[in-house]
Amino acid sequence: MQSNGCLIEGLESRTLMSGSALGSQVFNDTVKADRLQVRVDLLKFRADALGSFAVLLADTAAVKRDDLSTATTVTPLVDHLKADIKQMRLTLKADRLNEGIAVLTDRVAILMDLKQILLDRGDATALAADHQKLFNDRVKLQADLVAGLTQRLTDRQTAFDTISADAQAIVSAVQSDPNADPKLSGDLQKLMTDTTNRFATLNADLQQLLADRQKLVDDLTASQNG
């Protein structure tokens, strides 16, 4: 039973960090505080992902030492679990790619806005319109980050529900298999418990990040309207 959590959360961290900047612009104190809070959220997610993965590594090593192959009824269940984990990785990767396309489009638009501002130097009317468009495109970037994270949270929850059911089926099979190593059941249960705790912690981190990203969008919009 090999965990791919480090790879998944590593990709997640890079995706989350990649769209955190708004670029150089004067923002009010509320927006500045929002941006700082988003950075804090991202760092907490990364720290929790790394710390909890170290626990899972130890759990997985213990299960391997117990020799899962002795539980003859478990092999097909493990194969099913691996297939569901692979599907989760593919789904989350597709989510990240879709978000990446949206964010890249927003960043290209922002670069074009900055270019237009240079071209319109000296024309106050044109510059006012250019700066408004730049502001709108920066807000759109943050909104697309919120949408992308929302989709990943939904897909993470769906996948976790499936994987948890798979893991419980494996534990139950081991407990009823007369050929299984007696220590295997306890080690599998610990792995499942720690995996559940990891998911709960990271999900809470992402929910907080989502709320703070949405607050950033709202406060950015309010700063313009105000």
Task: Tell me what the structure shows.
Helix 1 packs antiparallel against helix 2, helix 2 runs antiparallel to helix 5 and helix 4 packs antiparallel against helix 5. It is built from five helices and no strands. The N and C termini lie far apart (55 Å). Helices cover 86% and strands 0% of the residues. The protein is mainly α and 226 residues long. It is elongated and about 85 Å long. The protein has one domain.
Oligomer: single chain
**H and E order:** HHHHH
Count of helical stretches: 5
How many domains? The number is 1
Shape: elongated
- Helical content, roughly? over 70%
Strand-pairing-aware structural class? mainly alpha
Low-confidence stretches: none
Mean pLDDT rating: 85
Span between N and C termini? 55 Å
Task: Describe the structure concisely.
It is built from five helices and no strands.
List the helices and strands and how they pair.
Layout: H1 5-18, H2 29-66, H3 75-119, H4 124-176, H5 182-225
Helix pairs in contact: 1-2, 1-3, 2-5, 3-4, 4-5
Which terms summarize this structure?
226 residues, elongated, single chain, mainly alpha
